[in-house]
Amino acid sequence: MRGWLSWADRILSWADRIDALNRLAARLARWALLLMLALGTWNVVGRYIGLAVGRNLSSNALIEGQWHLFDLMVLLALGYALQTDDHVRVDVLQSRWSPRRQGRVELAATLGLLLPFVLVVLITSVAPTLRSWQLWEVSPDPGGLPRYWVKSLIPLGFLLLGLQGVAQAIRLLHGRPPTSHDHGGEG
After folding, report:
1. CA distance 43 to 10
2. CA dihedral 88, 90, 94, 100 (to 10 degrees)
């Protein structure tokens, strides 16, 4: 029995590490949000100031930078949203179920829906991402930004989501609540 507990503790510690990784990714996403807002503000204000002074103070790169930061923010926060139960959920039936039944349904949904979906996205996104890196793909717009690094965020974001799904499943299999509802300044 002691070997089983030590194994279970190790598995649960991996779930905790995944949680920590997604909290770190969420911190980066938060900074991306702030930078995106600052850049968006400059793009708007700079456009009007530029008109007033007769000089272009914005560019395709600045506009695309906003999009890239939005991508960074959304894709890096996927796993954290699952961890903190901040994702879209329909609780009409689930709110009436016992905690045990809720856990079983949550586990079935994680293993049968979430993880296969993540796997499909990973499989379909890796080849285009690698191709983009091989080509050093850049925006077709004049003065646009490179696209290869931002395309990397798709498999990375879904990898983080999949890892969080695994952490949730580990907890559910051990009879523990799958998510932390206490945001407590984390992220």
Report:
1. 49
2. -20
pLDDT, position 187: 45
Look at residues 161, 170, 143 and name the one whose alpha carbon lies nearest to residue 21.
161
Residues counted in the chain: 187
- Give the mean pLDDT of 51-71: 91
Query: Shortest CA distance to 86 belongs to which of 76, 94, 77?
Result: 77
pLDDT of residue 95: 75
CB 176 within 8 A of CB 19: no
Model confidence pLDDT, tens digit, residues 158-182: 999 999 999 999 999 987 766 654 4
Q: Which 3-state string (H, E, C) describes 85-153?
A: CCCCCCCCCHHHCCHHHHHHHHHHHHHHHHHHHHHHHHHHHHHHHHHHHHHCCECCCCCCCECHHHHCH
Residue 92: pLDDT over 60: yes
In contact, 82 and 168? CB cutoff 8 Å: yes
